Amino acid sequence: MMPLAEMAEAVLRTADGREKTALSRKFAAEWLSARAEGARPEVGRADPPLHPARPAKPELLSPREVPRRRPGTPEGRAALLHAVAHIELNAVDLHWDVIARFSHVPLPLGFFDDWVKAADDESKHFNLMCDCLEEMGSHYGAMPAHAGMWRAAEDTVDDLMGRLAVVPMVLEARGLDVTPGMIKIFRNAKADSAVAALETIYSEEVAHVAYGSKWFHFLCGRHDEDPKDRFHALVRKYFHGDLKPPFNEEKRAEAGIPPDFYWPLTADGGSTKN
Ligand SMILES: [Fe+2]
Ligand SMILES: [Fe+2]
After folding, report:
1. Which ligand is nearest to the CA of 21?
2. Long-range Cβ contact pairs of 135-142 (< 8 A, separation 24 or more)
């Protein structure tokens, strides 16, 4: 079996979305089945690209240039699914990148198991969104998407704790806040396959946030640091802007993110909470 970091690099260097997720799922199955049998396969080392390979389409625009469409129309709903597909493809690369980028850091193998599992989930999520788009007569690449989603990875390229604070504990936690509203839009439109796909995504994303919180706390413990203070310092350093309520406090709690982690990072420092 190829060392895990080399698998990660191979996924990062694959441009086409469906090919990237197929390779990602194949590698994840190899790693996870070896681990289930009690093996301790090699993590190894890799030379991941600063930017992962991506397909020629979608065209990447700055968020201000991406046309806004209203979710009350089929075009608007297709645009919403397209945006989620784009987020999921980025997430596939983000999870393989944390493996490849930080393979030199001595960590329990369980750290790598978690991100392999998360990458496998994101690969499934991307495929689900592509299936829904294709069912509507569209496809991933049919409309422009946000540039700049890789910024969090670039900013934290040499800081594992910063990466965990910003990617799973801020960006993926935000997904828990907004997904229920999205499910409602598709339920109202009676778009059953999109509802089912988004519900799968919603239920599986909690674990990704929880992996982030688990390993962030692990590293704080290793360095004898206060997790809340460290989290605030890292988010202020690497995340551009305030965290925006309303928060899904129930799912955030399930994922191991307590209120005093995120409320102080809102525009008014949490004085309006409750
Ligand atoms: Fe996902
Ligand atoms: Fe995720």
Report:
1. 1
2. 135/193, 136/74, 136/77, 136/78, 136/81, 138/78, 138/81, 138/82, 140/17, 140/58, 140/82, 140/85, 140/86, 140/89, 141/17, 141/55, 141/56, 141/57, 141/58, 142/57, 142/58, 142/78, 142/82
Whether 100 and 46 have beta carbons less than 8 Å apart is answered as yes
Q: Which ligand number lies closest to the CA of residue 89?
A: 1
Distance CA 214, CA 212 (A): 5
Considering every ligand atom, which ligand is closest to the CA of 123? 1
Q: How many Å lie between the centroid of ligand 2 and the Cα of residue 36?
A: 22
How many angstroms is it from 265 CA to the middle of ligand 2? 21
23 vs 68, higher pLDDT:
23
pLDDT digits (tens, 9 = 90+) for 123-174: 999 999 999 999 999 999 999 999 888 999 999 999 999 999 999 999 999 9
Q: Decide if 126 contacts 88 (C-beta within 8 A).
A: yes
State which amino acid sits at residue 73.
Answer: T
Q: Which ligand is nearest to the CA of 126?
A: 1
- Ligand 1 centroid to 122 CA: how many Å? 4
The rounded Å distance from CA 88 to ligand 1 centre is: 5
User: Following DSSP, what letter does each residue of 135-204 receive, concatenated?
Assistant: HTT--TTSS-EES-TTHHHHHTTT-HHHHHHHIIIIIIHHHHHHHHHHHHHHHHTT-HHHHHHHHHHHHH
